[in-house]
Design a protein that fits this description.
136 residues; mainly alpha; 5 helices; elongated
């Protein structure tokens, strides 16, 4: 009998990584007691658990969006300068993904989600016209 590996999409991998990080946060909070309701209050405990979940979701969404831009840019043969030209109102402190040297994790502040979303909105139609399969 042969056991086959489950093939996960990029989005599923990032979702699993985000959930795993949140579980680590919850386990750390429980074992160390730093969010014990008797110490910080029930409202603050609930607040921080929701903040942890929100950060895990943001981590997932930002990294998936970043990887999607890199995927489409590589398939379309675009480089960092091409992507910069697609975002005319780029601030001095902001940057775009570099398809030639992508980071494993999306740079937290250097590449903002607004820039990534703007690039995705422009790259998806181009990819469809070029018959590039959607990012999974």
């Amino acid at each position: 009998m042969r056991i086959e590996m489950i093939k996960l999409t990029h989005k599923q991998r990032w979702a699993l990584l985000s959930v795993a990080l949140y579980i680590v946060f919850v386990i750390a909070a429980i074992t160390t007691g730093f969010l014990d309701p008797s110490k910080v209050g029930l409202q603050w405990t609930i607040f921080w658990y929701f903040c942890g979940a929100g950060l895990a979701y943001y981590f997932y969404f930002k990294n998936v969006s970043y990887r999607e831009v890199v995927y489409y840019a590589q398939k379309l043969g675009l480089h960092k300068d091409d992507l910069k030209a697609m975002v005319p109102k780029l601030k001095e402190t902001q940057d775009v993904p570099d398809p030639d040297k992508p980071n494993f994790f999306s740079p937290f502040a250097k590449v903002p989600i607004t820039v990534v979303n703007e690039l995705t909105d422009q790259l998806e139609p181009q990819a469809q016209q070029a018959n590039i399969p959607p990012y999974k």
